């Protein structure tokens, strides 16, 4: 013999609920949120792709661009002048007349490590120069 617990009337009458039970919906949404939070960073790591060469038209150059060159011996030059890394921000102020919104073009030797390039870029960022552009050689697009 079956017995229903918690029933007030004790009969077969079921109470009508006027509210929607959203608890299972919230549970499903939270599980999906956790899955996407875990999967999203994994989706951008270690994906090997061959990026196509750019065939975009060349962007117009400023009238007097400021080039920062990092040589293989890790010395830094602004234009043709060798500058100590500690004095780089001050030398950029002189070269740009303290216009820190001007784009600085960085020419780094390909034998440099990524860490050395980032160190020089951090010095420029600390000096207030946030618009940095990397200069490289253009290669024509190859057709498959």
Q: How is the secondary structure organized here?
A:
Blueprint: H1 23-43, E1 66-70, E2 76-78, E3 81-83, H2 88-96, E4 104-108, H3 114-126, E5 132-134
Parallel strand pairs: 1-4, 4-5
Antiparallel strand pairs: 1-2, 2-3
Describe the protein in words:
There is one protein chain. The chain is elongated, with a radius of gyration of 31 Å. The protein is built from three helices and five strands. The mean pLDDT is 81. With 144 residues, it is α/β, with parallel strands linked by helices.
Describe the sheet with the most strands: 5 strands, mixed
Taking all Cα atoms into account, the compactness measure Rg is: 31 Å
Helix content: 25-40%
String of helices and strands: HEEEHEHE
Strand content: 5-15%
> What is the tally of beta strands?
5
- By DSSP (H or I, 4+ residues per run), the number of helices equals 3
Shape, per Cα inertia axes: elongated
Strand order of the largest sheet: 3-2-1-4-5
**Poorly predicted parts:** none
Distance between the termini: 77 Å
* Mean pLDDT over the residues: 81
Class computed from helices, strands and strand pairing: alpha/beta
């Amino acid at each position: 013999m079956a017995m229903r617990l918690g029933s007030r009337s004790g009969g077969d009458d079921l109470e009508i609920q006027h509210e929607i039970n959203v608890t299972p919906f919230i549970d499903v949404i939270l599980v999906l949120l956790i899955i996407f939070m875990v999967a999203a960073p994994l989706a951008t790591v270690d994906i090997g792709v061959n990026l196509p060469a750019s065939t975009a038209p060349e962007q117009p150059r400023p009238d007097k661009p400021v080039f920062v060159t990092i040589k293989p011996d890790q010395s830094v030059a602004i234009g043709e002048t060798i500058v100590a890394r500690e004095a780089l921000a001050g030398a950029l102020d002189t070269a740009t007349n303290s216009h820190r919104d001007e784009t600085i073009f960085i020419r780094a030797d390909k034998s440099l490590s990524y860490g050395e390039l980032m160190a020089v870029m951090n010095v420029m960022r600390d000096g207030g120069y946030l618009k940095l552009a990397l200069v490289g050689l253009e290669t024509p697009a190859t057709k498959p």
